[in-house]
């Protein structure tokens, strides 16, 4: 997603290997635990939904099945085209970043972001934009990987030694978000897919370690769901 300025923050996995990332998306959250938690926290039936950092639009059809309208925002031109092809007639997809959303004030009920841009300190411009486009009573829901959960979290931290999960959680708490931890299962159809996915997510030595440690086709992966509602106006 885009950073505080106009330059996007690269997402090497999906930007460089969109076909492999498609297979990863299909393997993730095999039991639908993230969707169940989202539905409980921020039901979107009849709502206007914005997905920030929508990538190639993988999640947009799920929202479109119940929402009044769905908009995706993504800075990478190739992914925007893929998202538009996937969601023709279901959603509108714009090429833009989180810090400059191409939507009017108070125009959506839910801002959703999954493993995109909102990684803690530094994402304040995107939070401000989400607040701007939300209607009173609306919510921003941020889904991100939980690096405190093994084994995936340990592999993350091996590649990102400066990343501090506790500081990220404290950041969202300071900004008024609730937090829920979600246990999920990634289920792969074959070893080829599992190994390809791990190799686009991690450096070569960490990926090889992760592949050696994963003996089957199922991988437990933890997530965090952060939710903050925009206070509704209450007349005096």
Brief write-up:
The chain is of the alpha/beta class. The chain has ten helices and seven strands.
The appropriate CATH architecture of the domain at 12-146 and 164-183 and 221-229 is 3-Layer(aba) Sandwich
Could you spell the SSE succession in H and E letters? HHHEHEHEEHEHHEHHE
By secondary-structure content and strand pairing, the structural class works out as alpha/beta
Task: List the total number of helices.
Answer: 10
Note the beta-strand portion.
15-25%
Largest sheet: 7 strands, mixed
Distance between the termini: 40 Å
Strand line-up in the sheet with most strands: 3-2-1-4-5-7-6
Oligomer: single chain
Q: Any low-confidence stretches, pLDDT <50, length ≥5?
A: 1-5
Q: How many E strands?
A: 7
CATH topology of the domain at 12-146 and 164-183 and 221-229: Rossmann fold
Classified in CATH, the superfamily of the domain at 12-146 and 164-183 and 221-229 is: Vaccinia Virus protein VP39
Principal-axis shape: globular
Share of residues in helices: 25-40%
Radius of gyration: 17 Å
Mean pLDDT across the residues is 94
CATH class of the domain at 12-146 and 164-183 and 221-229: Alpha Beta
GO molecular function, one term: methyltransferase activity
Protein name: Class I SAM-dependent methyltransferase
GO biological process, one term: methylation
Domain Methyltransferase type: 50-142
